Amino acid sequence: MTNAIECTGLGKDFKQLQRPPGLRGALLGLVSRKYKTIRALRNVNLTVRDGEFVGIIGPNGAGKSTLIKILTGILTPSTGNARVLNFVPYKDRQKFSQKMGVVFGQRTQLWWDLPVADSFDVLKAIYSIPDATYKRNLVRFSRILGINKYLNQPVRKLSLGERMRCDLAASLLHNPDIIFLDEPTIGLDVEAKYRMRAFLKEINTAGTTIILTTHDMGDIEELCPRLLIVDKGRMIYDGPTAAIRERIRERALVVDFAEPSPRRIALPAGAKLVSREGDRAVIRIDLKKASVSAITKHLLGRYKIDDIATEEPSIEELIRRIYREGV
Questions:
Q1: In the chain, N or C terminus with fewer CB closer than 10 Å?
Q2: What is the pLDDT of residues 91-135, one digit of tens each?
Q3: What three-state secondary structure class fits 306?
């Protein structure tokens, strides 16, 4: 198996104009300009194997979009090197574009006033897609994504979710070897999101390398065995998505007390009451100091309980903690 992406020492700086506000600032800017350097990406090293499905997450301004734009050839790095499918994307853009697909959540590659089918025909000509391949892909995408009913509608009349499905189909018409997706499930209802995820799994199983950036942790858990976390321009985590849970050694107990519920709940070391509403209490357990079984035994031995259940923190909560506390 070969590498689809190889990055070494990747960095990107932007210059931001600094001037006082108002008319005085505007006049001073005509005479003397001062710039501040914004370091959007810092020393990123990354290798992605052919056929991987990789998720990239990070807070706003972390550097995710900058990284994707370098990998797709839109931006040139300030330092370091990047190769994608053995191309330097920002130098070999024309040849590389024949092998790559991309969907940016808020930007469409479809023509606004044309019917979707006409946009597809234009893309067929741009990418020189053979008739048989084009027809086969169109039938397949229509079936899985449910876009057949939108093909004769102008793009401007589609909802965001409908357009996102059509944009995904458009990015795959030429059978790219790698596809970059930025928030592909934005604006989708539950059924459409299910269709989108099933479709992405299918094309990944067929061998397409997929790089996904999203704020939807459901997409990450459902689709991406490997996770990259970017914060302040740095790669702070690169590893299995499942391993994230092991980094936070904590569980919660949801306890429903029998009536009358106790006014005060005595807890041993390692357990903390985090919320209470009526007869229900949520107790957080630090697994470094106590076990779930020990706290459960403690509660059952002292109080009358109708129900007790263990909850793991959601991956969204785990990611928020990593942003706050680091890996």
A1: N
A2: 998 899 899 999 886 678 899 899 999 999 999 999 999 999 999
A3: strand
